[in-house]
Design a protein that fits this description.
Elements (H helix, E strand, L loop, with lengths): L8 H8 L7 E6 L7 E7 L3 E6 L8 H12 L18 E3 L2 E7 L11 H18 L12 H11 L5 H13 L10 E4 L8 E4 L2 E5 L6 E4 H12 L9 H12 L6 H27 L12 H13 L9
Length: 315
């Protein structure tokens, strides 16, 4: 959510003429995040988030916008995309595909408590169950093939210890794609900065632009590696248990998912370590940019490798 494409006030006023959102009052760029350009936009009708998509193509975007509209209408708090006067979620601004979504109340959580972890676990389970109704498909753009390609790109650029770690993880995860596990549409990026809370109440899940069809258990692993992690990279038992119990109250895990958990949680940590390394070594230019520390996710991966028995899920 950095600003790579600058939008001038006059451009935004003209763009708003295609929506029934009132007159422009104020707008400002959002520096947090990585992939897209985002602005907070205030009009006489309310507050919105404007996203200009820097990498995704226009033909790819209906998948994400339709998911957002669907889940927000099926019991999962999330940001609803806004249709323009032609009834479309997607438009073009400054040469980039663009969309408005409603701005939700609340803010992201810096130090999650067990109650908030439980709320996220339950909401994710509801999302997964609702997604079974969707007849759409998109491969995970950060799946096993991407991890292999990113690893090969990065190994010559990192220190020897990191290169050996990358090589060993690729070997450990060789059979990842062949697992027979429940899957459908997942969020795939449900970190703390992609959920807005007011106290312990979830205002909504945001930023569905990594959504894809993949293992449900992978979505869980991505989330707990952020929501339930301690400063040394290990999982906090109280928060982890709260998340998993709440999730399984909606969708109990299968025996195969539980058996695959040590592999999946390492794959989730590995994916985000590689992604952050790539952003550091191949940064994009922007007016306001935000990079996340690769070492923090590397520490989480190392913790998963060193103590795999600490992260086994109970039935």
């Amino acid at each position: 959510m950095s600003v790579y494409t600058v939008v001038e006030r006059a451009q935004l006023i003209r763009h708003l003429a295609h929506y029934s959102l009132g007159e422009l009052v104020d707008f400002q760029g959002i520096s947090s995040g990585i992939e897209n350009t985002n602005y907070f936009v205030t009009t006489t009708n309310g507050d919105y988030v404007l996203t200009l998509f820097e990498e995704l193509k226009a033909e790819e975007l209906p998948y994400f916008l339709n998911i957002m509209a669907f889940v927000s209408s099926n019991g999962v708090p999330s940001a609803q995309p806004i249709r323009n006067n032609d009834g479309a979620y997607l438009s073009t601004l400054n040469g980039k595909p663009a969309a408005f979504v409603e701005k939700l109340d609340g803010g992201d959580v810096t130090s999650p408590n067990p109650t908030q972890c439980a709320v996220i676990g339950q909401s994710m389970a509801k999302l997964h169950m609702a997604s079974l109704q969707l007849d759409i498909h998109r491969d995970n753009s950060r799946g096993a093939n991407w991890r292999q390609q990113a690893a090969e790109l990065l190994m010559p650029l990192v220190d020897k210890e990191s290169a050996e770690l990358i090589r060993d993880e690729l070997t450990f995860q060789t059979n990842y794609s062949g697992l027979d596990l429940p899957q459908s549409v997942i969020h795939a990026d449900l970190f703390r900065d992609n959920a807005l809370f007011s106290g312990d109440n979830l205002s909504g899940i945001i930023d569905f632009y990594y959504a894809c069809n993949d293992y449900f258990i992978y979505d869980i692993a991505v989330a707990v590696n952020d929501w339930c992690v301690t400063s040394d990279g290990s999982l906090d038992k109280e928060r982890f248990d709260a998340f998993m119990q709440a999730y399984q109250s909606i969708r109990p895990l299968s025996a195969e998912e539980i058996e695959s958990w040590p592999l999946i949680i390492r794959a989730a940590a590995f994916r985000f370590w590689l992604s952050r390394l790539r952003d550091v070594h191949f940064p994009k230019e922007g007016e306001m940019t935000h990079l996340k520390d690769p070492d923090a996710m590397k520490q989480i991966l190392l913790a998963r490798r060193q103590s795999p028995d600490n992260y086994l899920i109970n039935h």
